[in-house]
């Protein structure tokens, strides 16, 4: 039983070679995949063509890589330090002064870098959510940082008010770190899944025409007689025809003590033979094996969102709409009551940035 995975998305495991449903990269055999930090294809995902199920199927981390989020976080964090030092609000809070000719343009340059570099995953995520009609956290974050950035640029070029560059930078830092932690936990589960696939041997010895012949695992057929030497992995589910041994099934069943297997005893693919030699009649290979069913169950569990996740997605969706509505309402109220468009804009931006958790 050979499995294929995506170098960019190890959580994707398929029985046949093909394209990754998340990023379009060619799948490679498990064990031969090298993790790449580059995207070699556009992220057009056919799985989202049916908008009736878009909210359930959309994956906000499509096209993202765990290491990429961490790299963006550290670089953004370094850029955040001078932004904080040049921020007038931070200077007022900490009672110090750091000003020079053109400091606002330096702040603008640093803010532009962190917005375009650190905020890029969220901007791309917003586009994906809008296309999939699955408005969520990515859209909320993207709107918050975009509003803060555009308003701050306007302040630099003459609009009355105080910029939001430090709020922009810290918000991006926090969100990058949070998404990295989330993706790291997903990757840990994916590596555990791949470890199950790695339990199977690449080659197997079978008895054909009275002789022992070594073949590739994918060529093994149900009904053949496999010869299992001491210390080898069991290649497929089967029944013991000859021999006696103790089999380590701990990775599959949780049984800590090796299980005695003799004639007519059942063995499971992926378990490890002890000191004895066995002849096993293969009863299930590939998709029909116990190990493959376990892998499929784990994959289904990973792909299924919990009730908490569904609730969080719904909250993020409505929070996005509420933030936009309240922001517009805030602007309308203050502009109508004071007639000061600059003050009304500042209040609107404050509300929309604050609404992003």
From TrEMBL:
Recorded family membership: Belongs to the cation transport ATPase (P-type) (TC 3.A.3) family. Type IB subfamily.
Domain annotation P-type ATPase A: ranges: 199-299
Region feature (Disordered): 35-58
Stored InterPro entries: ATPase_P-typ_TM_dom_sf, ATPase_P-typ_transduc_dom_A_sf, ATPase_P-type_domA, HMBD, P-typ_ATPase_IB, P_typ_ATPase
Ranges where the Heavy metal binding domain occurs: 3-30
Source organism phylogeny: Bacteria, Pseudomonadati, Bacteroidota, Flavobacteriia, Flavobacteriales
Coiled-coil zones: none
Keyword terms of this UniProt record: ATP-binding, Membrane, Metal-binding, Nucleotide-binding, Translocase, Transmembrane, Transmembrane helix
Membrane-protein topology: Multi-pass membrane protein
GO cellular component term, pick one: endomembrane system
Protein name, entry field: Cu2+-exporting ATPase
PANTHER family (UniProt xref): ATP7, ISOFORM B, P-TYPE CU(+) TRANSPORTER
Subcellular location: Endomembrane system
One GO molecular-function entry: P-type divalent copper transporter activity
GO term, biological process aspect, one: copper ion homeostasis
Record-annotated membrane-spanning stretches: 69-90, 105-123, 135-158, 164-181, 315-336
Record keyword ATP-binding present: yes
Compositionally biased residues, Basic and acidic residues: 36-45
